[in-house]
Amino acid sequence: MRTTQLLIVTKLFLLLHFSPGSAQSDLAFGERYAIVLGGIGGQEEYTETYFSQTSRLYDWLVTKLNYKPGNVVYLFEDPSFDSLAIAYKATAENVRRAFYQLAQKMDEDDQVLIFMVGHGSYDGTWSKFNLVGPDLRDIDFGQLLSQLPTQRIILVNTASASGPFIEKLSGEERVIITATKSGQEHFETSFADFFLDALTSDEADFNKDDRISMLEAFKFARTKQDTWFEEKRRIPSEHPLLDDNGDGEGSQELENSDDGLWASRVYLDPVSKELESSLKSLRSGSSSARDSLLLQKARLEQQIEDLKARKPQMKPTEYSKKLETLLIRLAKVSRELKGLDSGKN
User: Fold this and answer.
1) 111 contacts 175 by C-beta, under 8 angstroms
2) Which domain holds residue 315?
3) Helices 44-59 and 191-199: crossing angle, nearest 10°?
4) Are 223 and 300 in the same domain?
5) Phi/psi at 332 (nearest 5 deg)?
6) What DSSP designation does 267 have?
């Protein structure tokens, strides 16, 4: 009887809080999209390296994270390297086409990753990403991002001289990561491999929640890169930055920085398999009491993370009061879930 009552109450809760028009603080189960962009190598060595890196990410998104192949647009210098996966040659026109293509499919709750590997340059005003034919500037990418219907954007530019991209692309709910801190750092970068290692390694899961946040990936890559420079006895020629608070200024050391709070709750795989299964059950009308509690728990956890990300802009008393309220609600739901799992109710 109690289980039936619980199921009715939680279904009413979910109808109110997980509807298509729900508030931004609710769980965002939007689609996941990506643009994987490999720029012109110029030399065979670089071309092969860029293909290895971009294909590694493409394969990981599609096979490991189950991104729909149609949601991932892969551009590369020479499409013949993988004619099945690579959609377009990496030209400025085709990059614009890729953004337009996604803009027509995406909604405001969707998330997109733009991952860039290649050469970069800086002319004193604009940072450029080198393509086949005319290059695209940081401001050009800024305009392309503004065409997307979502602000849930992750852009990782691993090219040399990529630092100025942060100033031009920074915005609310955006995570912008660059391999360099300025346009003057123009040597070939090593950041891409370390970042890819972070995304695909359990070692980068510092909080052991079985997911890698963008903050965890950045910290892991930066630490591994620092160690690599030390082992090679080389002076670091690149200093990666992360910006996620919209102020246009990236940070490398995030322990005492305003950056990193939003990135700590941004994942390429935002929903666990268990939670995704519960959501599908809810949408099909066949959800159990356990499904409903799992979704309530996930929603409260996200609200807590959202609150933590807004802490610097809040009064201490207001923050503490709201956090306490959410933690009490989370504890109650967790107890209900634990009781359900143990068969005591």
Assistant:
1) no
2) 2-25+272-342
3) 20
4) no
5) -65, -45
6) B
Neighbours of 169 (CB within 10 A): 23
Q: Are 178 and 241 in contact (CB under 8 A)?
A: yes
Domain identity same for 60 and 17 = no
Q: Within this chain, do residues 247 and 103 fall inside the same structural domain, yes or no? A: yes
Task: Tell me the mean pLDDT per 10 residues along the chain, length 345.
Answer: 41 40 46 96 97 98 94 98 98 98 94 98 97 98 97 97 97 96 95 96 88 95 96 94 95 87 86 68 74 84 80 88 94 89 66
Tell me, yes or no, whether 69 and 186 share the same domain.
yes
Q: How far apart are the first and last CA of the chain?
A: 9
CA distance 166 to 176: 6
The contacts of residue 166 (CB under 8 Å, 6+ apart) are 176, 178, 241, 243, 248, 249, 250
Domain boundary among 224, 240, 265: 265
What pLDDT is attached to residue 61? 97
Query: Can you tell me the distance from the alpha carbon of 259 to that of 245, in angstroms, rounded to the nearest whole number?
Result: 6
Chain-centre distance of CA 241, in angstroms? 15
Report phi then psi at 344, rounded to 5: -85, -15
Same domain, 254 and 234: yes
Token representation of residue 319: 């923050």
Q: What pLDDT is attached to residue 250?
A: 95
